[in-house]
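Propose amino acids for all 384 sites.
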C-alpha cells in the first residue's frame, strides 16, 4: 500500500508538471482546423524533414508548432539541442534504461524510447525564424528542421527551404517532396483513428472557448487528445520492433504475448513511412537504445486496426460534407428548387386556367352562334 501511494504521488506530480508545460497549447484548435491532416503533420515531424510554417500572426504561428511537437511525450523537456544544428548533447549523455516499472508512466515511456529525439545533430527548431537565419537553413549541415516565419518571401522560395509547407493563413499543407508524400499517405486504419478523434473534437467544439469541450467532459479535452496520440505512438513503436523481429526471423513463431493475428502490424501504419523513418537519426537513436522486444510490453497493433468499413465511408462522407459546407449548399439548392417548383406550379396553373377560360369562351361563342342560327331559321319560316 505504501509503494502504491508513493507511485501514485509520483505520477500525479509528473502530470501536474506536464500540464504547466502544455499551458497555452491548444490541440483542439489544431485538430479542428486541420482535421485528418493533424496526423499527417505528426507523422511528418517524426520523419525529420524540412518543415516550414507560415503565418501572419506570430503568437498563433509559435503556438501551432509547440502544440505539434508536444504530441511527442517528454519532448518539451528535452529541447536542449534544438537551437543549433551542431548541438548533440542529448544523445551523448543518453543512458539506456535497463529497468521498467510498469506502474510508473514515466518509466514506461522512457523504456519505450520516448521522447523520440527529432532535434539532434543536424536539426533545428525555430518557431520564429528571422531572415538573418536563412543561411543556417540553407547550410549543408542542416538536414532537418521545424521553423516558422511571418515573412512572405519564404513562400516564394518554398521549394528551396521546405519539404512541406504549412500555411496557417490559408489552412493549407503543401508537400513538395514526392517521397515524403508517399510516406505520409494515411492508411485505412490511420484515417479511421484520426476521423474518430476529429469527430470527437468537432462535436464538442465551443467557438467561445476553443480550448475545452462545451460539455466540459473528458471526451475531446486536451488530456484526452494527448492520451490518444500517446497510445498511437506506443503502438507504432511496438509495431516497428515486431516488424523488425518478423523480417529478421521469418521462419520463427510469434513471440508476442498478445493476441496478434495480423502478419505484420506495421502495414496499418504505412510501410513507406517506416522505410523513410529508418533513414533518420531519431530512428537510429531509438533502435540502438531500446529493447528489441518492446512488443512484449505494448501490443504491436494499430489502435483501430482492420479493413475499411461502411461506417468509415459514411463518417468520412459526413465530414467532407461538413468541411465543404455542402449541407448549406444543398439546403440553398433545395430552397431554390422549391421556389422554381412553386413558380412552375403557378405557371402551370395559370396556363391550365387560361386553357379552361378559352374553352369556356369557345363554348359560349358556339352557343351564341347556334342561338343566332336558330333565331334566323325561325324568322325565315315566319316570313315564308
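Proposal:
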Amino acid at each position: 500500500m505504501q509503494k502504491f501511494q508513493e507511485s501514485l504521488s509520483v505520477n500525479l506530480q509528473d502530470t501536474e508538471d506536464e500540464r504547466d508545460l502544455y499551458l497555452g497549447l491548444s490541440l483542439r484548435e489544431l485538430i479542428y482546423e486541420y482535421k485528418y491532416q493533424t496526423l499527417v503533420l505528426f507523422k511528418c515531424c517524426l520523419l525529420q524533414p524540412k518543415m516550414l510554417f507560415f503565418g501572419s500572426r506570430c503568437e498563433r504561428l509559435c503556438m501551432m508548432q509547440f502544440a505539434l511537437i508536444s504530441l511527442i511525450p517528454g519532448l518539451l523537456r528535452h529541447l536542449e539541442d534544438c537551437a543549433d544544428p551542431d548541438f548533440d548533447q542529448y544523445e551523448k549523455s543518453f543512458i539506456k534504461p535497463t529497468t521498467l516499472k510498469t506502474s510508473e508512466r514515466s518509466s514506461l515511456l522512457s523504456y519505450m524510447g520516448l521522447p523520440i529525439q527529432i532535434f539532434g545533430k543536424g536539426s533545428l527548431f525555430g518557431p520564429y525564424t528571422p531572415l538573418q537565419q536563412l543561411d543556417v537553413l540553407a547550410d549543408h549541415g542542416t538536414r532537418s528542421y521545424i521553423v516558422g516565419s511571418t515573412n512572405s518571401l519564404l513562400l516564394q522560395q518554398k521549394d528551396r527551404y521546405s519539404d512541406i509547407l504549412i500555411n496557417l493563413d490559408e489552412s493549407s499543407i503543401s508537400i513538395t517532396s514526392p517521397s515524403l508524400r508517399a510516406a505520409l499517405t494515411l492508411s485505412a486504419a490511420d484515417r479511421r483513428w484520426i476521423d474518430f478523434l476529429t469527430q470527437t473534437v468537432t462535436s464538442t467544439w465551443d467557438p467561445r472557448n476553443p480550448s475545452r469541450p462545451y460539455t466540459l467532459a473528458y471526451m475531446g479535452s486536451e488530456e484526452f487528445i494527448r492520451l490518444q496520440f500517446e497510445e498511437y505512438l506506443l503502438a507504432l513503436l511496438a509495431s516497428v520492433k515486431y516488424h523488425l523481429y518478423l523480417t529478421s526471423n521469418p521462419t520463427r513463431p510469434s513471440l508476442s504475448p498478445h493476441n496478434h493475428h495480423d502478419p505484420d502490424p506495421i502495414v496499418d501504419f504505412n510501410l513507406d513511412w517506416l522505410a523513410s523513418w529508418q533513414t533518420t537519426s531519431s530512428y537510429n537513436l531509438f533502435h540502438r537504445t531500446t529493447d528489441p522486444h518492446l512488443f512484449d510490453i505494448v501490443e504491436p497493433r494499430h489502435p483501430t486496426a482492420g479493413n475499411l468499413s461502411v461506417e468509415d465511408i459514411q463518417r468520412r462522407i459526413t465530414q467532407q460534407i461538413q468541411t465543404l459546407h455542402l449541407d448549406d449548399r444543398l439546403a440553398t439548392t433545395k430552397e431554390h428548387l422549391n421556389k422554381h417548383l412553386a413558380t412552375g406550379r403557378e405557371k402551370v396553373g395559370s396556363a391550365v386556367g387560361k386553357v379552361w377560360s378559352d374553352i369556356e369562351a369557345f363554348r359560349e361563342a358556339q352557343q351564341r352562334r347556334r342561338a343566332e342560327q336558330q333565331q334566323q331559321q325561325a324568322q325565315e319560316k315566319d316570313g315564308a
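The beta strands are 50-54, 123-126, 144-149, 164-167, 172-175. Residues 23 and 238 are 30 Å apart (CA to CA).
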